[in-house]
Amino acid sequence: MNDTTAPTKKPAGRGNFELDERLQAYKGVWVFIEHERGEVHPVSWELLGEGRKLADKLGVALSGVVMGSPGLPTRRFCAEAFFYGADNCYLIEDQVLENYRNQPFTKGLTDLVNTYQPEILLLGATTQGRDLAGSVATTLQTGLTADCTELNIDPDNRGLAATRPTFGGSLLCTIITKNYRPQMATIRPRVMAMPDRDGNRSGRIIEHPLGLIETSIVTKVLAYIPDENQDKPQLPFADIIIAGGRGMKKPENFQLIWDLAQVLGAEVGATRPVVQAGWVEADRQVGQSGKTVRPKLYIAAGISGAIQHRVGMDGSDVIIAINNDPNAAIFDFATYGIVGNAMTVLPALTETFRQQLAVARMAS
Amino acid sequence: MHIVVCIKQVPDSAQIRVHPVTNTIMRQGVPAIVNPYDLFSLEEALRLKDKYGGHVTVISMGPPQAEGALKKCIAFGADAAILVTDRAFAGADTLATSFALASAIEQIEKDMKVDMVFAGKQTIDGDTAQVGPGIAKRLDMQLLTYVSKIDELDLAKGEIKVQRRAEGGVQVLQTRLPCLITMLEGTNEMRFATMENMFRAARYPVNFWNKDTAGIVDVSKIGLKGSPTLVSKVFAPKPNTKPAEIIDTEGHEPRDLALTLLSKLFTQHPKLRDSIVKQAA
Ligand SMILES: Cc1cc2nc3c(=O)[nH]c(=O)nc-3n(C[C@H](O)[C@H](O)[C@H](O)COP(=O)(O)OP(=O)(O)OC[C@H]3O[C@@H](n4cnc5c(N)ncnc54)[C@H](O)[C@@H]3O)c2cc1C
Ligand SMILES: Nc1ncnc2c1ncn2[C@@H]1O[C@H](COP(=O)(O)O)[C@@H](O)[C@H]1O
């Protein structure tokens, strides 16, 4: 077994609250800057925003970790990381890091952690971040909390308190990592707010070698096939979302959702039963097992507001709910509610928006 | 060819209720199922077996009742099933779970070489997607997560070619066996259990392993002791702070409702108004 346990790490049990002296040396908050095809995934900036708050509470530095090949704009990624709040960037540049692959990225990130010893390491809960986080945490033999929705510092012991949904979202739990460092967590895109970008900030780049050659990497990338459908729904980043639930009754009625979306230039979202019934594609599902969204406006029609749906959308600025049941849970947290039949209210809304927008356009 | 598939028995979360007063999960009467994501991995393993021949072993770590989930997999067509069960595993987080499973897989390997391990993309109760990568790391196997398609398997060369879902597209990867694969959901459909396999499952004696049979010597790596993370608090989601402002008009005419709503929206959220105007332009 390839067991890489550091022998000095004491197992933590309940009650074992004192941090080993060796682990007290672990300082600072890190964010893994994920990129693909020359673009940084926005979740990395969201995590820098959150990481900044944690670092400030702890009084430590915030750093980004950038790994890539010399052909990629890695320095620009570092500069952007500074704009979004990082004080430092750890940079590993190596030809073998051209595409994401588990083995070299795990080695690079693990080496950086062992060398520079951060106390907290955050990654996006994406296909890349989750693949990497699990491998790195196992190699480092430390705790990893997946899909967190809230991060806090426990003032008593400076530890990370990571909150995440459990049991299908019915409950939340707060997880701590006792006598192990770094404390690792993944966070889904759009769960944290995008921080402001300050183009005047700068920081320090700390370069580190990878120390791995292509012939020792087992997995090869033969090709990358970009998604054909480039105009696939981009719900997580939409400013306006019109979403429908089972209360729309029939797939034909869903057209009313599309009509309003068209007038507003909005994306269309849906609840899980609607996706499962095949009324819209799976990419449009909002919630626990779908997308997390943070639009400026979310209009929910015929949606009950179950917790599994709510967790994906209650970060929206303004929520308008249309439901014929005055006791529907969605009215507990929406901004505005209309108690009524979605089949008549939606067309009226569409028409009213159309007119108001025409007026606004004439005025400008 | 020998494939090990890791499956977990989970409560059917669609039917979970939370006790309104104590905030605890009410498990009574909630049926236990095979983690739905694991079925995509099991089906893929069975397809490889159909095509290339071989042996599929399913393994699970859990309480004795998890035997039911393993029998279900036998009914689907798995050849052998092992339940790793021991009180010493209680309280395991993903690190401790992957340690125990990896150790058991090494024991399996002593009887028959393992070419591939499959795990689910994630569970619906733990939901972490970490156990698969953890096992791969511990067994020093190549890791292929979010696989949407197995393009080619060359057993003679010990090579496999797969398509892996990435954020903006699909990576075509080639690697060497042994490897650990987690399948993306929806990439195949679980077959029906045949009558013959159902009978076999009914008679099949699931192998019960304890920590010793699973080859675990260092008990500080399993259960609560071997888990770096601790659940410090479980609580119900915040009851919302502010209920919706209900828009109502005399006669409840949809058109009046819409007008009232819009004027409220536009006067109280001028920034939103601007961005709607911009967006719709
Ligand atoms: C593990 C797990 C994960 C899940 N993940 C998700 C997820 O990611 N996303 C998700 O959405 N769900 C998810 N769910 C399902 C979730 O629990 C709810 O079942 C689902 O959100 C309900 O969808 P709905 O509101 O469309 O349907 P319903 O709950 O059936 O609500 C329909 C609503 O429409 C109203 N209505 C009926 N007729 C009209 C009318 N004429 N006009 C106006 N209103 C009307 C009704 O009053 C009702 O409130 C998950 C569940 C589990 C267990
Ligand atoms: N107790 C367990 N027994 C067997 N397999 C497991 C167990 N826990 C997790 N797994 C496997 O690891 C995958 C990911 O689980 P998780 O990390 O909990 O989301 C699951 O889909 C299973 O294939």
Ranges of chain A with pLDDT <50 over ≥5 residues?
Answer: 1-16
Molecules bound to protein: flavin-adenine dinucleotide, adenosine monophosphate
Total DSSP E strands of chain A = 18
Biggest interface, residues from each chain: A-B, 105 and 97 residues
Give me a quick take on this structure.
The complex is a heterodimer of chains A (364) and B (281). In chain A, 29% of the residues lie in helices and 25% in strands.
Topology at a glance:
The complex is a heterodimer of chains A (364) and B (281).
Chain A (H helix, E strand, L loop, with lengths): L20 H4 L4 E4 L2 E2 L2 E2 L1 H17 L3 E7 L5 H10 L4 E6 L8 H15 L3 E5 L2 H14 L3 E5 L1 E5 L4 E8 L4 E7 L5 E5 L16 E4 L12 E7 L13 E5 L10 H10 L2 E4 L1 H5 L20 E5 L5 H7 L4 E6 L12 E4 L2 H22 L1
Parallel strand pairs in A: 1-4, 1-6, 4-5, 5-12, 6-11, 7-11, 14-15, 14-16, 16-17, 17-18
Antiparallel strand pairs in A: 2-3, 8-9, 9-10
Chain B lengths: L1 E5 L2 E3 L5 E2 L6 E2 L5 E3 L1 H17 L2 E7 L5 H10 L3 E5 L9 H18 L4 E4 L11 H9 L2 E13 L4 E7 L3 E8 L2 E5 L11 H9 L3 E3 L19 E7 L9 E2 L7 H15 L1 H11 L1
Parallel strand pairs in B: 1-6, 1-8, 6-7, 7-13, 8-12, 9-12
Antiparallel strand pairs in B: 2-5, 3-4, 9-10, 10-11
Helix pairs in contact in B: 2-5, 3-4, 6-7
The structure holds flavin-adenine dinucleotide and adenosine monophosphate (AMP).
Could you please describe the fold and organization of this structure?
The complex is a heterodimer of chains A (364) and B (281). Chain A is α/β, with parallel strands linked by helices and 364 residues long. Chain A has 9 helices and 18 strands. Chain A has helices at 21-24, 42-58, 74-83, 102-116, 127-140, 255-264, 272-276, 307-313, 342-363; strands spanning 29-32, 35-36, 39-40, 62-68, 88-93, 120-124, 144-148, 150-154, 159-166, 171-177, 183-187, 204-207, 220-226, 240-244, 267-270, 297-301, 318-323, 336-339. Chain A has a 7-stranded parallel β-sheet, sandwiched between helices. A 5-stranded parallel β-sheet of chain A has the order 15-14-16-17-18. The longest helix of chain A is centred in the C-terminal third of the chain and has 22 residues, at 342-363. Chain A is globular. Residues 1-16 of chain A have low confidence and may be disordered. By secondary structure, chain B is α/β, with parallel strands linked by helices. Chain B folds into 2 domains: 2-221, Rossmann fold; 243-281. Chain B has a 9-stranded mixed β-sheet, sandwiched between helices. In chain B, strands 2-5 form a two-stranded antiparallel ribbon. In chain B, strand 10 and strand 11 form a beta hairpin. The longest helix of chain B is centred in the middle third of the chain and has 18 residues, at 94-111. The radius of gyration of chain B is 24 Å and the shape is globular. The termini of chain B are far apart. The model of chain B has no long low-confidence stretch (mean pLDDT 92). Chains A and B meet through helix 4, helix 5, strand 7, strand 9 and strand 10 of A and strand 3, helix 3, helix 4, strand 9 and strand 10 of B. Strand 10 of chain A pairs antiparallel with strand 14 (229-235) of chain B. The complex binds flavin-adenine dinucleotide and adenosine monophosphate. Adenosine monophosphate is lined by residues 6-8, 35, 37-38, 60-62, 94, 97, 101, 119-120, 122-123, 126-132 of chain B.
